[in-house]
Task: structure prediction
Amino acid sequence: MQVNRRHSHRDVNGGWLRPAVFGAMDGLVSNLALITGVAGGSVAPQTIVITGLAGLASGAFSMAAGEYTSVASQRDLVLAELAVERRELAEDPEGERAELADRFRARGVAAPLAESVAEQLSRDPELALEIHARDELGVDPRSLPSPLVAAVSSFGSFALGAFLPVLPYLLGATQVWSAVALALSGLFLCGAAVSKVTARPWWYTGLRQFILGGAAAAVTYVLGSLLGAAIG
Result:
């Protein structure tokens, strides 16, 4: 009895996952560290709120601009290389077909079959471009990452992450420990959520982010305390 086994893979080329995850983690860690550093200097809660919100806004816009520029530059480079490959397919179709057949033979395909497959695939210029792009550039021309998606994902996730350490102060807290507890809880949950798209256990990714965020907060709190004592 034949058993049909079907499986699917998650989207790893959409351009949103990396900036979203990185943005959320960066927002949590950077604003938590900023707030604990300022709180270490024994300033008023109002000053901490203003500092935290300013850090949220500046960081979110910086992340969005950086992601947009980075992804757009990468996309422009890929498009330029695809244009070169498309021109070569138009100007020297036989040479490109022979190149494709050579690749099949190098992978163990018998010469007659390699020639036949290369000839059939080369009949469709767009399909031939896709195959050459995957093999030579390592990209899929149909699923290039979007700069706008990357920027929006980065902006929103950073702002959400950076907002958590400020929230306790907006609700009336006067001590930094409530902000630390909420932010570290958020880091653990974000790390655990990342395990859904990785092969790591949820507790490992959650604990890793918890430790990294806690270390950053501790270091900046000590530095803030030292600077506050020196300036004061």
